[in-house]
Write a structure and sequence with these properties.
Rossmann-like_a/b/a_fold, 292 residues, 40% helix, UspA, Universal stress protein, Universal_stress_UspA, alpha/beta
Length: 292
């Protein structure tokens, strides 16, 4: 059983190729964690009911949608068992919107996994409000499987001064399970400074201060995971750009839902959203523990 968050690995299934890539990723992760894999297909059949349709017609369409979803789950289970035949798998067709179903599933999950595009119920994921809602409101970490999926490489994590503990805990745990290093990226930019002061600033002193911020944030996790090799990286750049660049050869890039400079009330910050759209590898979005 995963001791970090408890529960199983849940993956959303809709029959698309992207969803099956997510199933493969989730199956490997469930095996690595030693937990069950749960396959869920969300079918909001009420929304497909034609206005004025006869009750028998509505029931026929509902059954057709459910049968299609069950077939998607059967295919997904075959893909997962191709990764590990002994993997314990639950599967269920659920009625409801994708965002609602996945958020509810996250309450009892160690990890929620989705593809970056889909069809049917998950077609909006990451590209619109559904993906943002799931990543922002899920009660467990969310992994969106996009870009290149590689078996070896570092776990990249974004670090700021105030909201990184949950993301760091997740990143170090993933790295320890994989025997991978952690690349901890702390980005800063003069765009946040008073432009009239910029010509007079001591850039070496600022760099030293930013390095100290990163080391302080890393210290408890380095102590807790001494077996994990850590590569602290301070970058004078936009945070989203720095993380996308650092993740080019990564197995996973991890971000919190809010960081320094976040607008109050925004549950999913601009950095997380940029990674969900542009990262070259799977993306994990981890909410702060206190907000779950």
């Amino acid at each position: 059983m995963d001791t970090l968050h408890g529960g199983r690995v849940v993956v959303g299934v809709d029959g698309s190729d992207c969803a099956l890539r997510a199933v493969r990723w989730a199956a490997v992760e469930a095996r690595r964690r030693g937990v069950r894999l749960r396959l869920v297909s969300a079918v909001g059949w009420a929304s497909f009911t034609p206005v004025g349709a006869a009750p028998l017609g509505r029931e026929y369409e509902r059954q057709a949608l459910v049968r299609a979803a069950e077939q998607f789950l059967t295919e997904a289970a075959g893909v997962a068992h191709g990764i590990d035949f002994g993997l314990e798998i639950d599967r269920q067709v659920r009625n409801g919107s994708p965002a609602t179903v996945l958020t509810e599933e996250s309450e009892h999950a160690a990890l929620l996994v989705t593809g970056h595009r889909g069809r049917g119920g998950f077609s909006e994921l990451v590209l619109g409000s559904v993906g943002v809602a799931v990543a922002a409101h899920a009660a467990c970490p969310v992994v969106v499987v996009r870009g290149d999926v590689v078996s070896r490489g570092p776990v990249v994590v974004g670090v700021d001064a105030e909201h990184s503990d949950a993301a760091l805990e997740f990143a170090f745990g993933e790295a320890a399970r994989r025997g991978a290093p952690v690349v901890a990226v702390h980005a800063w930019s003069e765009t946040a400074l008073d432009p009239f002061l910029v010509p007079f600033l001591d850039w070496d002193a600022i760099l030293a201060d930013e390095e100290a911020v990163l080391q302080k944030a890393l210290a408890p996790w380095v102590a807790k995971f001494p077996e994990v090799d850590v590569q602290p990286t301070v970058v004078r750049d936009n945070a989203a750009s720095a993380l996308v660049h650092a993740a080019e050869q990564a197995v996973l890039v991890v971000a919190g839902t809010r960081g320094r400079g976040g607008v109050r009330g925004m549950l999913l910050g601009s950095v997380s959203q940029a990674l969900l759209h542009h990262a070259p590898c799977p993306v994990a979005v981890v909410r702060p523990e206190g907000h779950r």
